[in-house]
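lol forgot to send this yesterday, sorry. struct tokens for the thing we talked abt
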């Protein structure tokens, strides 16, 4: 019995040592190869020859496509589920669904997409930028990298592996300058090595009287205690206020990983839908003439601890827009896809540049709840 116990102890020690060596090696490799982007860097725009003149009325769509890996059948290990990547047949269905839906939206001036994979194990190393661009011919594309890790070791039983993903902006307008802006802050080492390097992407389009339309695609931090989000929001605030002071039109859209000001989850609760916990942006975060635009009647994100269930899955709103006072909101519409292809749902917005102020005022109770 003593001999058997010693053998078991030795085997356990060997196993522990092997795991320690494995993790140590992964952390060392990750640290030495860590992606450390500068605060500001130019983004290459793949230019289409068919630009449209900038109209007064513009249509936008935001959508976190969840790398075409988080459709309705999926759960995710980081949110309390078990899966890391979908089976190949699920992935193909999700990616085809994303492409089909986006391809049917031709005519929208700006698509702001998040979690677009270009060379990741979780999405079978498919270049989703090229796949999406193929169904939207005539659109410029700009890609800002925010997840570049050679090997993500978690979960230990089935590591996520290589990830290469980011933000994708597509437009039929003439972008004269595009840049990636790193958000400040990150998780402590070694967790920071394997997490996203959060950023926003700025696209500039010439507008009337020497001004610019400044379009920002953002994807703020998740899984933090709020500290990182606060730093990011202050950085973004400083940037957009400066742009507005120049006389530019400013439109921000994306996945904020927090709720909009005056968010009212009771709307979903009254419809029998469980709601996700979250924190709303302070109503006094910006001057009152700035507008947060969202469809208060439709959730944009769902819980990933289990596959989607229309009756039990918790939902909320974390995907929305922010516009400067010289931009007038005409319409905001969430698109109900039943979370078929992603754990997020797209949101459309139509705006008027230099429109009358009463347009925003008439929408105030519907979209801003102010």
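and heres what i got for the seq, position by position
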């Amino acid at each position: 019995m003593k001999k058997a116990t010693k053998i078991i102890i030795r085997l356990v020690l060997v196993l522990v040592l092997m795991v320690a060596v494995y993790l140590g090696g992964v952390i060392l490799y990750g640290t030495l190869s860590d992606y450390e982007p500068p605060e500001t860097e130019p983004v290459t725009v793949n230019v289409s020859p068919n630009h449209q003149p900038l109209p007064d009325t513009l249509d936008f769509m935001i959508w976190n496509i969840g790398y075409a890996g988080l459709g309705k059948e999926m759960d995710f290990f980081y949110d309390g589920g078990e899966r890391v990547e979908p089976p190949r047949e699920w992935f193909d269905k999700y990616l085809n669904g994303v492409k089909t839906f986006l391809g049917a939206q031709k005519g929208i001036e700006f698509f702001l997409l998040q979690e677009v994979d270009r060379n990741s194990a979780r999405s079978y190393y498919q270049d989703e930028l090229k796949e999406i661009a193929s169904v939207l011919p005539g659109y410029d594309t700009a890609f800002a990298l925010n997840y570049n890790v050679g090997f993500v070791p978690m979960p230990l039983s089935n590591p996520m592996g290589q990830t290469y993903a980011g933000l994708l902006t597509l437009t039929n307008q003439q972008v004269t300058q595009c840049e990636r802006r790193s958000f400040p802050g990150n998780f402590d080492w070694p967790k920071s090595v394997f997490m996203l390097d959060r950023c926003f992407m700025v696209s500039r389009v010439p507008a009337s009287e020497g001004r610019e339309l400044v379009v920002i695609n953002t994807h703020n931090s998740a899984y933090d205690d709020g500290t990182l989000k606060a730093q990011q929001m202050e950085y973004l605030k400083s940037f957009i206020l400066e742009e507005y002071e120049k006389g530019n039109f400013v439109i921000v859209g994306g996945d904020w990983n927090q709720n909009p000001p005056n968010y009212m989850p009771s709307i979903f609760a009254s419809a029998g839908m469980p709601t996700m916990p979250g924190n709303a942006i302070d109503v006094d975060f910006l001057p009152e003439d700035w507008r947060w635009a969202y469809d208060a009647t439709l959730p944009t994100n769902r819980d990933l601890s289990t596959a989607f269930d229309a009756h039990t899955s918790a939902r909320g709103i974390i995907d929305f827009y922010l516009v400067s006072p010289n931009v007038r909101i005409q319409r905001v519409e969430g698109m109900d896809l039943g979370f078929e292809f992603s754990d997020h749902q797209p949101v459309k917005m139509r705006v008027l540049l230099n429109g009358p102020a009463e347009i925003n005022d008439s929408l105030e109770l519907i979209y801003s709840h102010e």
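The chain has two domains: 1-32, 39-368. anyway ping me if u want another try
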